[in-house]
Amino acid sequence: MPPSKTAKPAYACAECGWTTSKWVGRCGECQAWGTVDLQGGAAKAGRTQAAPVATAARPITEIAVEAARASTSGIAELDRVLGGGVVPGGVLLLAGEPGVGKSTLLLEVAARWARAGRRTLYVSGEESAAQVRLRAERTGALDDNLFLAAETDLGALLTHVDQVQPSLLIVDSVQTIGSSDVDGVPGGVTQVREVAAAVIGRAKSAGIATLLVGHVTKDGSVAGPRVLEHLVDVVLQFEGDRTSRLRLLRAVKNRFGPVDEIGCFDLVDDGIVEVPDPTGLFLSRHETAVAGTCVTVTMEGRRPLLAEVQALTVGSSMASPRRSSSGLESSRVAMTLAVVTKHCRVDLSKADVYTASVGGARLYEPSVDLAIAMAVYSAARDTVVPTDLVVIGEVGLAGELRKVNHLAARLREASRIGFTRAIVPAGSEGVDQVAGMRVKPVRDIASAVRVLDAPAPF
Known about the structure:
Layout: E1 9-13, E2 19-20, E3 36-41, H1 76-82, E4 91-96, H2 102-115, E5 120-124, H3 129-139, E6 146-150, H4 154-164, E7 168-172, H5 189-206, E8 209-214, H6 227-231, E9 234-240, E10 246-254, E11 262-268, E12 271-274, E13 293-300, E14 303-315, E15 323-326, H7 330-343, E16 351-357, H8 369-381, E17 389-391, E18 394-395, E19 401-402, H9 407-417, E20 421-425, E21 438-442, H10 445-453
Helix pairs in contact: 7-8, 8-10
């Protein structure tokens, strides 16, 4: 009898699914390093047989939705981002840089969930139970319904879930939990995939709302296999500058709500607090008009925020003058400087140009272009932008101004703060519907800067 042929082991990329018969360090399809792992014997096509089903298929109109209704987390800014609250059985992945405040935020969520009379299990794989207790005392996050465990083994974590039977499970973090049944170290591709699959399976079967903390790589993406982001229902990014207390929470993926909402938080000494109106954080209101400053309105998700752009131009003795920007996209700043030089007759070839945003805001939206141009023109000509004026518009290479979205909402926010005049691109719709705001539509950047040189305001 001839010997049976054994199937060759199959290796697959956790990022894109590319397969190969032998292990390689780099995926041949997506070129990612360290994502190729053993998947077991290669299955033969057409050999999978029909199996019993867990629940019979029913018409979609007969499916009850009460069990999937969102419950408030107790933090309005988090509920805003999630689209109403935490869904039972939903799995949320919160990612962010070290020290940004992920654990502090989730500990506050756990405490407020527990104060509502609901059992909460907080599993920490990075700190001891005593260390988490100390942080909870400092932030006032103590409650008898909040259960705490320090575990790094997946089996022990699932045992805690069976014993406590919580309605909310927090795992901090998924990269520190490992399974003894799977090869590799905790945080590796295989381990992260196994831990995530086990926790998500338990959450779905028991209807437990689950929050997972994820680490990030140097480029800001979630560490581990890309399949982790596909498995979870919601992916949230927690952002913040180390020099600022302001933290922004934004949804990258959300199966239960929008992905264009943000939540604002202030990281203080005794924990983290919500900031329902963060507009004033990005403005430095001057008593008198100052050259080189201009205010614009940017959109963070669906929320309009006023932000100030500052510029400084000084003579340079170097052959290549310096261009420096903080909080602004350097490529768009360079493009805007070229447009100002060409269409506004401002010579910046022998001047160092410094541009920055106020309050640590990161202004990468194209609608900020006109504010950058006005601030640079104001600094170069030593003229001032009126303190009650906001400018909104995207600048093209030909000097034209392009329309921006949600213009009426931006103008309403500016009017609420106290601004009375605005320069917007010509042809914009809905600008006449804002009470108390005088609007000046302009077609190009040259017409916009002429407003600063006009003797009388519009």
